[in-house]
Amino acid sequence: MSVQADYYELLGVERNADGATLKSAYRKLAMQYHPDRNPGCQDSEAKFKAINQAYDCLKDDQKRAAYDRFGHAAFENGGPGGGNGFGGGAGFSDLGDIFESIFGAAGFGGAAAGGRGRQQRRGADLRYDMEISLEDAFAGRTEEITIDVSARCDDCDGSGATPGTGSRTCSTCHGHGQVRAQQGFFVVERTCPSCHGAGQVIEEPCRSCRGEGRVDKRKTLSVNIPAGVDEGTRIRLAGEGEAGARGAPAGDLYIFLHMKRHKVFERDGTTLFCRAPVSFTTAALGGEIEVPGLDRQTVKIKIPAGIQSGKQLRHRGAGMPALNGRGGRGDMVVQIDVETPTRLTPKQKELLQAFRETETGEECPQSTGFFSKLKEMWDDLG
C-alpha cells in the first residue's frame, strides 16, 4: 500500500471533518488494523502505520493546513509542515487510548502513562511520630519539633541555576520533558534522560545544590496540637515535606500522635476510666471520695452504702473533650475496689469481733446465697 495515499481517504473522512470526527475514525481503524489483532499480516502492519501517519498530520492544525495546500510535498525535503523533532507517528496519548481499549488501562500502565508535556514533580510527603501525654491531649498544646529535610535552596531560590544565569530548552526533548521511542509496533514515551522531565537544561548549576534546587537542612517547626486528639490522630503541615526539584511544590509533613500510658486513667474515646479503692467501712456505710481530674479540678464521687467491688460509677462531663470542641466533654467512669484492711489496731480488732458476733447472715446476702447453693449441691449428690 502506497504511503502517498490521500490522508483523508485513508481515514475515511471528508476534507472538512472536525477534530472529533478525525479522532473517532482514527481510533476505529487503529483498533481494526493493530498488529496485535492481525499477527503476521504485513498488509495490516502497513495500513496501521499509514493511518498513524495520516492522523498525526491531520490532527495538527498547522500540518493540516500545509497538507491541504501542498499535499504530501509539504513534508518532503524539509518543506512546510515538516517534522517537529519529537518523533513521528500518532500522539502517544492517542495510542494510549487505543491500547487501553484493546488491553485495558492496567495492562498499559493506566492513564498516568499517557501524560504528555513537562511535569513538575512534587516533593515527597514526610511522616513524624510524636508521643504526647494524656494531659496534653486533654488541654491541647503547641509543640516544637526539629526535622532534617530537603528544603528550597536559598542561593538559587530553588531554580537550580547559579544566580545571574538561566536555563535553555532541552535539545533532546525540545522542552516536552519526555521522549518517544518505537519498540516494534509500540511507541513508548519516557522521561527525558537529559533534563529528567524538566524540559529545561540549566546552563550553570548552582554550586550549593548542584542544580537540584534543594539542599538538606534542619528545620524547627511549631505544631499545634488541638484538645481532644487521640491515638493515631494525624496533623498535616502543608508544604513542610521534601522540597520539589528545581522549584517544584514541596510535599506535606504528617504528624502522627501516640498517647503515653497514664498512671491513673485509661481512655476510650471521650470516656475516662479509673479504679478507686475504698475502705470496707465506706463501702458498707456509704460516703464520698474525691478524684483529681485532668483539668486539675476535683471530681466528687458519691459512694452508695453497700457498694460492691467492681461496681462502676459514672460522673457526667468529667471526661475528655471532643476534638474541635464538638459534643462537649465525655464522662468519667470510676470502678470501685473495696479494700480489706490489713493493719488493724487491737481496738479495731475488738470492734470487728463484736460486729461478727452480731452477724445473722443477712448482712451479706451474696455470701449467704453462695454457701446455700453449695449446701444444696452436696445434698443433691448425697
From TrEMBL:
Residue ranges occupied by any CR-type domain in the UniProt entry: 140-218
CXXCXGXG motif-type repeats, residues: 153-160, 170-177, 192-199, 206-213
An example Gene Ontology CC term for this record: cytoplasm
Keyword terms of this UniProt record: Chaperone, Cytoplasm, DNA replication, Metal-binding, Repeat, Stress response, Zinc, Zinc-finger
ZnF endpoints (CR-type): 140-218
Entry note about domains: The J domain is necessary and sufficient to stimulate DnaK ATPase activity. Zinc center 1 plays an important role in the autonomous, DnaK-independent chaperone activity of DnaJ. Zinc center 2 is essential for interaction with DnaK and for DnaJ activity.
Family affiliation: Belongs to the DnaJ family.
Name of protein: Chaperone protein DnaJ
Organism: Sphingobium jiangsuense
Gene: dnaJ
